[in-house]
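Exercise 7. Given the encoded structure of a 371-residue chain, write a plausible sequence.
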């Protein structure tokens, strides 16, 4: 009884929190899980800390929980399963994740460039044998960085590039790469800081990019690796095709050095945040929607299409000049091709609505009847 009372006395104050973890973590569940640890020593309190420290988000309902290793999803399954089910549109604990990356199956992804300004496809990957970012050591971070440098140093042709270690980057390189949106500073993201992922910044961190900066890799930011394909204009088909080829090249080279990505049948690719399980893929466009963005049904329309909006400068940034970053909400339970196609079909519909509203015409026929 004394141990139960002590655990209850330590239950976090979540009454004003709007994240998925806070909606599912009950005092009884906390009592049941708070003394558990993974074999790497990761605890429930470490897992939920980002959700405790960050009650709300301006654009989305974040997961509010992170994993310290692959084992976390099993040891704390009572909570993780509920978070995953809500975050990934009803994905059940007995489901099997499937993959299909074939870019030839993606259709109608060349958008009207009067509306779409740029396209981007990214995916997170973790290297098996290392703890995840919330608890991995300086030695592990440097080991991951070296694996990435070894693999990326063998890329050839259009994927030949250069690696920049953040700890030794010149002020000139930092300035230019920042202006080109190639860099990420995890110390400015509250969720990353609360989870412990920004410890020892910038040690072991870096960015690699091709000569034209259309394909790049972040090393040891939120996850071990973040693989990104991007370009200006409205050709999401080409952006995804480059992503597919570049990621395939990277994985083959990592395997040649004796390493592989972390994944399993149920959760697909394993990454730190439950939002990035499965494919780990986020396809996004920057699109101008001055009329539709002001429509009171806009958020509900995005929800019905399983799309998310955010500011063009990242997760916690405001919408500026009526330009929205629109992306797929799901990562798990769908294939890569399905998710990219969902963004394409959804953005094409949003543009069609925007054109109607510009002419003061009704969009009721395009809006799901339940809205």
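Solution.
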């Amino acid at each position: 009884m004394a141990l139960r009372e002590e655990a209850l006395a330590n239950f976090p104050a979540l009454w004003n929190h709007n994240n998925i973890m806070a909606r599912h973590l009950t005092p009884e569940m906390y009592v049941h899980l708070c003394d558990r640890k993974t074999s790497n020593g990761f605890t429930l309190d470490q897992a939920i800390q980002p959700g405790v420290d960050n009650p709300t988000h301006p654009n989305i309902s974040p997961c509010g929980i992170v994993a310290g290793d692959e084992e976390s999803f099993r040891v704390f399954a009572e909570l993780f399963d509920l978070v995953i089910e809500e975050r990934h549109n009803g994905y059940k604990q007995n489901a099997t994740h499937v993959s299909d990356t074939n870019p030839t199956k993606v259709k109608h992804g060349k958008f009207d460039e009067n509306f779409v300004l740029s396209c981007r496809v990214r995916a997170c990957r973790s290297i098996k044998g290392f703890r995840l970012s919330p608890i991995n050591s300086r030695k592990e971070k440097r080991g991951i960085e070296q694996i990435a440098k070894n693999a990326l140093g063998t890329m050839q042709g259009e994927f030949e590039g250069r690696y920049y270690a953040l700890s030794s980057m010149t002020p000139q390189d930092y300035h230019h790469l920042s202006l080109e949106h190639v860099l990420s500073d995890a110390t400015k993201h509250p969720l990353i800081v609360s989870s412990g992922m920004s410890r020892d910044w910038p040690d072991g961190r870096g960015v690699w990019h091709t000569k034209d900066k259309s394909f790049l890799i972040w090393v040891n930011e939120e996850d071990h690796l973040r693989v990104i394909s991007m370009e200006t204009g409205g050709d999401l088909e080409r952006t995804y095709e480059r992503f597919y080829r570049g990621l395939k090249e990277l994985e083959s080279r990592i395997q040649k050095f004796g390493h592989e990505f972390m994944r399993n049948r149920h959760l697909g690719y394993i990454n730190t945040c439950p939002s990035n399980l499965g494919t780990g893929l986020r396809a996004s466009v920057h699109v101008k929607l001055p009329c539709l963005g002001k429509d009171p049904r806009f958020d509900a329309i995005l929800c019905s299409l399983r799309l998310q909006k955010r500011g063009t400068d990242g997760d916690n940034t405001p919408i500026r000049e009526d330009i929205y970053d629109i992306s797929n909400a799901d990562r798990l339970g769908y294939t890569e091709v399905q998710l990219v196609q969902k963004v394409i079909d959804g953005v094409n519909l949003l543009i069609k609505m925007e054109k109607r509203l510009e002419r003061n015409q009704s969009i009721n026929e395009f809006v799901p009847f339940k809205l």
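Remark. The first helix runs from residue 2 to 9. Students should compare their own answers with the one above.
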